[in-house]
Amino acid sequence: MDGLLLERIPELPERVLVEVGEQRALVMPTAAAARRLADLVIGLEDPPDGAVVKAGGAVRLVPAEGGLLPHLTVLGNVIHGHAVTHRVTRQAAEVHSRQTAEWCGLEDVLDRYPHEITPGRRRLAGVARALRADPRVIVLEDAGGLPTWGSLLALKPNPELGRAALLLITTDLERTTGFGDAA
Prior knowledge:
The chain is of the alpha/beta class. It has one domain: Rossmann fold. The chain is 31% helix and 20% strand. It contains five helices and eight strands. A five-stranded parallel sheet has the order 5-6-7-3-8, sandwiched between helices.
């Protein structure tokens, strides 16, 4: 298993498997249940007795608003995601981070701060930041009033997305349109 496996977790189907390169959306009944599931997957909460949560490597969370550090530019945020997990020079981190940002469609906003870009761009910058950490699983939180993950990720092909299992957690089935399989 190289991705994410969830078994016997209350409020979920009996078994959820998301392999690297796949996208899966889980629709939860309440915002609290969605938050709890995100916490279980990223390891902030222990699974209930008898439940199984297995990730085939590092897990990164992208909060609904992108989770960017407000005092860093978009490029600075993406580099920060790289620097957290890699021991490379600043120059190498910047080269890799620029490529990831370009694949996420952010090349024209790299020198801007999070408050200076649209909510959709903040979400994509959060994905770019997560990707630079080379995770096996990326958990995408969702919220109404923001562009859908399916619409954002379909904007530009990104080869790096194929190296992780993507799990969208939402409370609204309509917000899963264009994003992998919904359960």
